[in-house]
Write a structure and sequence with these properties.
single chain, 2 domains
């Protein structure tokens, strides 16, 4: 059985990844480092070269900006929905308080519909 070498580039042993995400991030870093070395030496495959050319294109940069803006928009919509729910709860409580000030019994069913 072959042992996995956990030593990094500088010879120091790296601790094993604690999560699958950490392992994936580490592998992405290794792949980027290897691709960089191959690009510098001129030994990179055409797929590697093409990948980095596409990543650096203007179109890719705009697509990244669009994705960031879509995330901001979704976050704002989520916050607006949460805020609307809080406002509705406050209105309901305010109506219930006004009814109790007038001597009326609060109607649970009616409060849920408001």
């Amino acid at each position: 059985m072959k042992r996995i070498d956990n030593s990094g580039e500088n010879g120091r042993r790296e601790p094993p990844a604690r999560t699958p995400e950490e392992q994936e991030n580490r592998n992405v870093c290794y792949a980027n480092d290897l691709a960089e070395k191959q690009l510098k030496k001129g030994t990179a495959s055409s797929q590697t070269i093409n990948y980095f050319l596409q990543k650096g294109s203007v179109k890719e940069k705009y697509e990244r900006i669009i994705l960031e803006k879509e995330i901001e928009l979704l976050t704002a919509k989520t916050e607006a929905i949460k805020s609307q729910k809080r406002v509705e709860e406050l209105y309901s409580k305010a109506l219930s308080a006004m009814r109790s000030y007038n001597g009326e019994e609060p109607d649970d069913e009616e409060d849920e519909n408001v």
